[in-house]
Amino acid sequence: ASTRYNLPPGPQGGFILGMRRLLPSVEPWKTYARWSQVYGDPVISFRVYNRHIVVLNSAQAISDLLERKAEIYSDRPMSWMYNVICDRGKAIFNISSSNPRHKQYRKILQSGLGLRAIREYLPLIQQESLRLALGLIQSPEQLVTHIQRNSAAVIMKVAFGYMITDDDPFIKVADEASRISGWATQPGRWLVDHHPISMFQDILWKSPFNELPHSSIISFLAPWNGMETTRPSVEGKASGIHTDCFTSRLLSPDDGNICSPEDVDTIKWCAGALYAGAGDTTVSAIISFVLLMALHPEVQVKAREEIRATFGDLVMNYTDVSSTSSRARDLTHSKAHEDDVDLNQISRLPYLNAIMKEVLRFAPVGNMALPHRVTEEDVYRGYRIPKDASIIANVWAVLHDPSIYPEPFTFSPERFMPSSPSNSERSTPQPDSKQWSFGFGKRACPGINFAETTMLFAMFNILLRCKISLPSGATKPVEVEFTTGITSHIKLFPIVVEPIQTT
Ligand code: HEM
């Protein structure tokens, strides 16, 4: 009966290729938002080969479909190239929501990344964030490396009990995995995704293909191979080399149960997801944060005042990375000393939280989240949404919708504070941007609490120790530009980082 309805409006493209050659390669989210204006509807659609793509450009459409109808809108588009040829079909990001493993994965990650688990990681997260701030002071030109190191140090210790070294290959590998994933999953990139029979053509014709599956899988699961903690280890425990971490706890549960090969495989993909999920996302957000602070000294001053007003001189006790490193080394058992700062309090600072929400809004990490797939034909506002269509949530469009966020291109954490001057017309803060930043329905990001905590701690330590500014004598105003990819961040520009005198 739904064939009576038209598809949502949108550009037509060619007879065979559809929009394949007309898809934007730079900041596609902006083009999709523009098409939505041109075609006069927040929901638009187009075709790439034989696949329908539906883009949701409004908050209402996203919550009506991806949240309220999550039962049918939570699958992932099938990618032959990625899932079958690259053997990524079992990865948490790609697995079908109808596969029983999907539920298992999410259960494991929810307990491993839940608030209780995170409380145990706080000393490690604080330690590594302090190291990040000190690194920025020493060599601000290595901004990205310091931030990647911070993310890798925390997640590798949490997931595998592994302490990274300064030039550890794992620092870069997640970035590489994300770059390859972005490239491999671009809509219409591989003919084989749309016509499986053409698999052989792709194999023969696309030269980069030869490198793709190998490097992609290696980076994603790299940490698993060769780690002591990935041995199902009655063995490990007995030998004294056992390290308490996410992986070892699952592989050697306290009840003494032995994992089946199937369980081990499930745990392997979960550990890989921690590494891949955390790899480039928090990194992108913290890069954007540092660059935005260089442009907004007034925000830095206000945030520092909040920190000082809350903690006084107490926070200054954390001056020396080496003095606290032994505690951090044994992260899962360490507790902050009574005379230390209450680490839980860092996550509750209102202005610090407002800055984080504004960074995630102004410079979204995932401008289009990850694509979903609808598993049944549906009708929405008189439009036909065909079974198996790929559904893209245009998160960027929502986070820059002036009816939700007035003056959306202005960076202003105050919009998330109650009754501040810039918020005078609204008595309540603007809606929390996090509800859009971390995805939807049954695929919503399981790392949200972990991501928030790592971001807040990094921001806290950077604001406390570093004064970030533009080089003096810079003549041109900085034009804020963004990278394009599954994850995005503000493109680098020169900054100056000076230590803040603490005495
Ligand atoms: C600022 C940081 C982060 C942002 C903005 C972010 C955002 C997202 C988004 C938009 C999705 C797709 C949701 C959807 O399809 O609707 C996602 C999925 C996912 N994220 Fe995150 N994420 C972040 C950090 C993390 C961290 C730290 C981890 C793990 C430690 C993680 C693990 C995952 C996993 C495993 C998925 C796949 C879920 C599934 O397909 O079922 N993320 N994330």
- Spatially, the strands of the biggest sheet line up as 1-2-6-3
Radius of gyration over C-alpha positions, nearest whole angstrom: 23 Å
The main pleated sheet reads as:
4 strands, mixed
What ligands does this structure carry?
protoporphyrin IX containing FE
pLDDT < 50 stretches = 196-220, 232-240, 320-339
Beginning-to-end CA distance, first to last residue: 74 Å
Order of helices and strands: HEEHHHHHHHHHHHHHHHHHEEEEHHHEE
What topology emerges from the helices and strands here?
Layout: H1 28-38, E1 43-48, E2 51-56, H2 59-67, H3 70-73, H4 80-85, H5 100-112, H6 115-138, H7 143-160, H8 170-185, H9 199-205, H10 212-221, H11 234-239, H12 246-251, H13 261-279, H14 281-295, H15 297-311, H16 321-329, H17 343-346, H18 350-362, E3 372-373, E4 378-380, E5 383-385, E6 390-393, H19 395-399, H20 434-437, H21 448-465, E7 466-469, E8 496-499
Parallel strand pairs: 2-6
Antiparallel strand pairs: 1-2, 3-6, 4-5, 7-8
Helix pairs in contact: 5-13, 6-7, 6-16, 6-21, 7-8, 7-13, 7-14, 8-10, 8-13, 14-18, 14-21, 15-18
Bound molecules: protoporphyrin IX containing FE.
